[in-house]
Design goal:
- With 78 residues, the protein is mainly α.
- The protein has five helices and no strands.
- The longest helix is centred in the middle third of the chain and has 10 residues.
Amino acid sequence: MQGALELLGIPYTGSGVLASALGMDKWRTKMVWQAANLPVPDYALLDKDTDWKAVAHQLGLPLFVKPANEGQAWESAR
């Protein structure tokens, strides 16, 4: 949305294009935080071939499974 508004020259409030795109991608956000030496909980990137039992063993239970790039958790929960 921010990209479209900027292309159209329409002012807006809130985060810019880069911050919004980064905030939509949980894995890349974690990479930025780790590069800044901020604490990041253990995590795993999952795909269709993921061994769910191995992930549960590695991370421990309970755990959360969230889409990697669908924005904030509250948006995904709607």
